[in-house]
Amino acid sequence: MSDYDWRDDAKCTEVSPDIFFPDRGDMWKIALAKQICAGCPVAAECIADGESDEWSIRGGLVASQRKPMRAARLRAEGVA
């Protein structure tokens, strides 16, 4: 069993977590978070982990962008 945790490679650990929890309409903070995520080597893992997170930016996507991905995965799994 590996001790590897994808979060160890996440770029977000290098900045304040507040960046990834912007207020509604805070376009500056949203753009900054997306820029950080764009250079992150584990963005895909973050998106998958944050599929149902409705409050933060995960892997460069806001909740409304991740919601259809989750719905599609659930349909493919025969859950929804």
Explain the overall architecture:
The chain has one domain. It is built from 3 helices and no strands. The chain has helices at 27-38, 43-49, 63-76.
Percent of residues in beta strands = under 5%
Q: What is the overall silhouette? A: flat
Average residue pLDDT: 92
What portion of residues is helical? 40-55%
Taking the sheet with the most strands, its summary is: none
**CA-to-CA gap between the ends?**
32 Å
- Structurally, how many domains make up the residues? 1
Number of DSSP E strands: 0
Rg (C-alpha, Å): 13 Å
What are the secondary-structure elements, in order, as H or E? HHH
| Separate helix tally | 3
Q: Poorly predicted ranges (pLDDT <50, ≥5 residues)? A: none
Q: What structural class is derived from the secondary structure elements? A: mainly alpha
Could you write a compact summary of the structure shown?
The chain is mainly alpha-helical and 80 residues long. The protein contains three helices and no strands.
Topology:
Elements: H1 27-38, H2 43-49, H3 63-76
List its salient traits.
flat; 80 residues; mainly alpha; 41% helix; single chain; 3 helices
